[in-house]
Amino acid sequence: MSDKATTADKTLFTPFNVVAGFIIIIGTVITILRFTGGLAAVTNLSDNNPWGLWIGFDLLVGVALAAGGFVTSAAVYLFGMKKYHSAVRPAVLTGFLGYALVVFALHYDVGRPWRLPYPFIMQSGTTSLLFEVGACVALYLTVLFLEFMPAPLEWLGLKRIRELAVKLTLVLTIFGVVLSTLHQSSLGALFLIVPSKLHPLWYSPYLPVYFFISSIIAGLSMVIFESTLSHHYFVDKMDGTHLSENEGVTLGFAKAASFVLAGYFIIKIIGISFADNWYLLGTSYGIWFLVEILGFVALPSFLYAVGVRDKNLKLIKWTSLLAVLGIILNRLNVSLIAFNWHLPSSERYFPHWMEIAISVFIVTIGIVVFRFIVTRMPIFYEHPEYKDNH
Amino acid sequence: MSISRRKFLGWIGAAGAGSAIGSTALAGGNKHFTGYPGSYAVLHDTVLCVGCRLCEASCNKVNELPAPDKPFTDLEVLNKKRRTTAKTYTVVNKYESAGKKGPLFRKIQCNHCLEPACASACFVRAFSKTAVGAVTYDSTVCVGCRYCMVACPFEIPAYEYDEPLTPRVMKCTMCYPRITKGQLPGCVEACPKEALTYGKREDLLKIARARIRKYPDRYVDHVYGESEMGGTSWLYLSGVPFSEIGMREDLGITPAPDLTSGALAVVPMVVGLWPVLLTGIYAISKRKEKIAEQELNEAVKHAANEVKEKAEAKLAEALAKAHTEKDAAVEKAVKKALEEAAKSQAKEDS
Ligand code: SF4
Ligand code: SF4
Ligand code: SF4
What we know:
The complex is a heterodimer of chains A (390) and B (350). Chain A is mainly α. Chain A has 15 helices and no strands. Chain A has one domain: Formate dehydrogenase/DMSO reductase fold (Up-down Bundle). The radius of gyration of chain A is 21 Å and the shape is globular. The model of chain A is unreliable at 1-8 (pLDDT under 50). Chain B is built from 8 helices and 9 strands. Chain B has helices at residues 3-21, 54-62, 117-121, 147-151, 176-179, 186-190, 201-214, 256-349; strands at residues 40-45, 91-95, 104-108, 127-129, 135-137, 158-159, 169-170, 196-200, 234-237. In chain B, the strands form 4 sheets. A 3-stranded mixed sheet of chain B has the order 8-1-9. A two-stranded antiparallel sheet of chain B has the order 2-3. In chain B, β2 (91-95) and β3 form a beta hairpin. In chain B, α1 (3-21) runs parallel beside α8. Residues 1-30 of chain B have low confidence and may be disordered. Chains A and B meet through α1, α2, α4, α7 and α10 of A and α1, α3, α4, β6 and α8 of B. The structure holds iron/sulfur cluster (SF4) (3 copies). One iron/sulfur cluster (SF4) is lined by residues 110-113, 116-118, 135, 152, 154, 156-157, 171 of chain B.
């Protein structure tokens, strides 16, 4: 699936286009069903299970995996790790697209999407963690948009505005970190209100801390994982700097991820000890919990460390996939699998295939737009006119 | 019962979320809201309930809800466990208990919590706890996010999932329009057995305790709703442990807003401290960079100087050497000349 479409308009029917087109057609049909028949027509949601895949995956996983933007720009611009500079633009782009898609996906899930601004313009429920999430996501989407602006402005050749956008970098980065800290953690805090519905191994007063720390893991791992994919498909778009810095970025981020995973593992254990939940580990939920924290937290931490020590890039890349899967698993555990664990299995939720199809549809839109942008704008390379300009 | 454990968790929640980021959480606090004074409530005495479903029928009528699939007179419906839905604000369920012969019944509806989870969770404040006791809902601001349904510990609010564009959250209103006019709630008015009593919450608590005192072998010594989740405006009496009539006994007494206030209290701290810390870090890394640059410059200069110095030294040495070499040559020449002179003298002498 190399990128033929831009170099030549020989044929539109590349394998990529065919698959993407097919998914988009199905998605459009389901979209019509959703907005004519209501949620009941396309989802398995019920009064006992008001949140399903579109919240568990599209919102919780989406936001966590889009953390690469704030993690990378903080590392480079605030912590002065200039040598990772070439990783910033791809990460900011994925962050921006990720958040835009999260907001897009919410339009399917909420009952009256045009009222999404209501909490800010009509009546604010400031006691709600969801208010905090909404406010931060809306602001952060704007921040990411501005952070991303230099690329399209260079593409369009609008030098003056670009200068202005670049000048904002530092302020935007700080703003981005503040907003990310808040909403990444409040996504976890959303579940603080349901101690009676979420299994005690996942329910913890530390949920906001867990969500924040694990979002850093998600951000670091996604940068590594994405760069692996991009190298595969867009290597012709990359300049010398990007290619030569890439190994350093991978090693540096892997090392950081290994440490953060270790810390995350420790605070998870502290959480269990604090609530004295050890006795629950023998139950079936306990085993599932152990699978999560041993297989998807401890193991990737160890593998990252080995990968860095041996400079084994292949191992690191596979580990990043493992860590990303671990984050997905965690978010689905909290929102769906360990949620409502007290209900009999007949009242539990399992997504309808059309819910899954919409999630796939939204991810596909993300990939198509990403591809459109990186094949046109200076993402993986520095624009010749703006070199050394950062 | 794990109430104490839950309570404990609650404290930890307050302490943990706060201390983790280093601010004092406002959670818990020392003030405990016990409801608006003089607010109204309903006491449901399940011991007296006969499962006739007249309350369900009345609720359906006064709230103008859609007609049910099976008529309210059909008691077969009771054989299946039901919950509230978008079309039914209240349902009566049947339970069997080992300790009692004959079925037990319990009516389910919104409990009109004193500090409602639904209201605390809603990001447009669509719910309000009114002073008369009812928790009301305003569909004109509702976005339809369904977080209220996630939050409600009693699994009460339902949603119009089949409405494509104008879905509402549906739940019992405690007949707010009726009680503000001085009428009884529909269900209470219809109950033939006085299994439902409407009145001031304080009075109902007294009545409930009096019944327990009078018939200690008929009632479990607990008024459900007096303190569950911080207290509710719907109170229950039972002859068997409440868990046997489908009511959770592990909810604890922490009101829902206290579960999240710690996390909310951290927000201003993050907003206040993060930018300062981050700018600090930026300044440090910037300074490090500058120092590194300076050091580099100096090193370069130093190296250049060294090279120059070395070159000079070499030159001097070379000059000196040249000097000495020259001197030596002169000396040698002089010596030679002298020797020659001496030789010729000696020749002359001999
Ligand atoms: S029972 Fe549920 S819906 Fe009713 S007031 Fe309490 S939290 Fe809200
Ligand atoms: S569904 Fe409506 S009432 Fe419930 S929390 Fe969301 S906005 Fe509030
Ligand atoms: S009307 Fe009264 S006795 Fe009949 S089911 Fe309802 S609460 Fe029970």
